[in-house]
Amino acid sequence: MKAMVYDRYGSPDVLTLREVEKPAVADDGVLVRVRAASVNPVDWHTLTGTPYMVRVQAGLREPKSELLGVDFAGTVEDVGSSVNGFQPGDEVFGARSGALSEYVCARKVVVAKPANLTFEEAAAVPVAAVSALQGLRDKGGIQSGHRVLINGASGGVGTFAVQIAKALGAEVTAVCSTRNVETAQSLGADDVIDYTQEDFTRNGRRYDLMLDIAGNRSWTDCKRILEDNGTLVFVGGPKTNPLVGPLGHCVKVLVASLPGSRDVKIFIARVTKEDLTVLRELLEAGKIKPVIEKRYDLSDAPEALRYLGEGHARGKLVIIV
Ligand SMILES: NC(=O)c1ccc[n+]([C@@H]2O[C@H](COP(=O)([O-])OP(=O)(O)OC[C@H]3O[C@@H](n4cnc5c(N)ncnc54)[C@H](OP(=O)(O)O)[C@@H]3O)[C@@H](O)[C@H]2O)c1
C-alpha cells in the first residue's frame, strides 16, 4: 500500500510517499481502507520530534514508527476473528496511528461513520472534536447556561468547541482573528472577539469557563475574566519551550493559580469509542458540523502539515487518500 513515511525527525520535507507493507488484520482489529484522513498538531509534534518530551514515546533518536497520522475515515475491508459488530463494506471513522496510509488496522477506536457525513468530513472529527468535548464536559464541567469563552475558536479544536458548547446549552464567546470572525459567528457563537482589535481580558466581562486552546495568556489575565468559582481548561499553548512545549506555560499558570478559588486544569485528550459515539449523535442530529478549510491529496500531506504548523488553519485540513 502507499503511505506517507519518514525515518528521521524534521520538517514536512522529510516525508515521502512510499510503498510499504499493508497491515494484516489483527484478531481484535478491523482492517480499514482509508478514504480520508486529517492532520492535527499531534502529527506535527510526532513528525518534528518537538518538543523533546514527545520523543519519550515516539522514539528518542529517531521515530520508532515510520508512519504518521491519527484521524481516519474509510470502509471496512476485513474483520478480526474476535470482533463483533462490523462487516466488510461498513463505513467507519476513528483514530489509529499511521492513518496517512491507504490502510490501517484499527483496534479499539473505530465506530460507524455518521450517515450524513462524507468520508472527508468524518475524518476531520476524531482528535479535534474529542479534545473539545473532553475539555468542555469532563474537565470544564460545562453546564447549560454557563458563560464560556473559547480562546482559539477558529482552528480544529476551536470550531468543534464552539458548536459543542452551544449544543450543551452554554452562552459562547469565541476569540479568533479577523479573517475567522464570520466563521465563528456561523458556528453559533453568541459573541465573537477579534483578538487583533480587542483584548478580551480587558472588557469587564466574566465567564464560568475559559477553554484555552491558544494558551497565550498569563494567569493575571485569565483570572480577571473568570468568575470566583470559574474554571480555566488548557487545551494547547505556545510551542516555545523546547523541552516540554505548551506544558511549560500551562504549569506556570497552574502554579500561579494555586492560592485562589478558581480551578485550572491541564489535560491530554484520549480518543475513545464512547466519545466518538457521542459525537456521531451530535453530528447526525445536525448540532455540530466539521469545518474544513482545505483538502489535499495524500502526496501533498507535507503541504498540509506545513500549513498546519503555521498555526492559523481555519477548522480542519483533510487528506484525501
Ligand atoms: N490537550 C490535548 O489533548 C490537545 C488535543 C488537541 C490539540 N491540542 C493543542 O491545541 C492547540 C490547537 O489545536 P488545533 O487542532 O485547534 O490547532 P489548529 O487547527 O492549528 O488551530 C490553531 C488556532 O489557533 C488560533 N490562534 C493562533 N494564535 C492565536 C491567538 N493569539 N489568539 C487566539 N487564537 C489564536 C488560530 O486562529 P487564528 O488564525 O484566527 O489566529 C487557529 O485557528 C494546539 O496547541 C494543539 O497541540 C491539545
Task: For the structure shown, list the relevant keywords.
321 residues; alpha/beta; 6-stranded parallel beta sheet; 10 helices; 26% strand; binds NADP nicotinamide-adenine-dinucleotide phosphate
Hetero groups in this structure are:
NADP nicotinamide-adenine-dinucleotide phosphate
What share of residues are in beta strands?
25-35%
What level of helicity do the residues show? 25-40%
Specify the number of helices.
10
Main sheet makeup:
7 strands, mixed
Large-scale geometry: globular
Query: How many E-type strands?
Result: 15
What does this structure look like?
This protein is an alpha/beta fold. It has ten helices and 15 strands. The longest helix is centred in the middle third of the chain and has 14 residues, at 126-139. The N and C termini lie close together (11 Å). The protein binds NADP nicotinamide-adenine-dinucleotide phosphate.
